[in-house]
Amino acid sequence: MDIIGLLLNLISGAVGGNLAGALMQDKSLGTVGNSIAGVLGGGIGGALLQAVGVLASSGGADSLGGIVGNVASGGVGGAVLLVIVSLVKRAMATA
What are residue 9's phi and psi, to 5 degrees? Predict the structure, then answer.
């Protein structure tokens, strides 16, 4: 993964985490928590999709397909990790 693709994944992950937190108020971890979960989820999601080969087929990070793929994978990864973290946090609070 090149540095441009990684930055796109991290930034779009933060945006995806905050967007998911805004849309699902019960899952929100606050702005900082949403951003941290989003950045981590964006990085992990982008790395996983590149390892599977989804991002490699869409072109490099400097092509339009690569940019769209990195932004989409980062945003979705950030939102998914935010939901997972909030569910784990809720489960630990009730236990």
Answer: -65, -45
The DSSP line for 17-30 is HHHHHHH-GGG--H
Regions of the chain short of the pLDDT cut 70:
1, 54-62
Q: Which of 73, 83, 75, 78 is nearest to 29 (CA)?
A: 83
Tally of structural domains, the chain? 1
Residue 70 sits in which domain range? 3-94
Alpha helices (runs of H) in the chain, residue ranges in sequence order: 3-23, 30-52, 64-94
The predicted-structure confidence for 41-58, as pLDDT tens digits, reads as follows 999 988 887 788 766 555
* Rounded distance between C-alpha atoms, residue 68 and residue 8, angstroms: 9
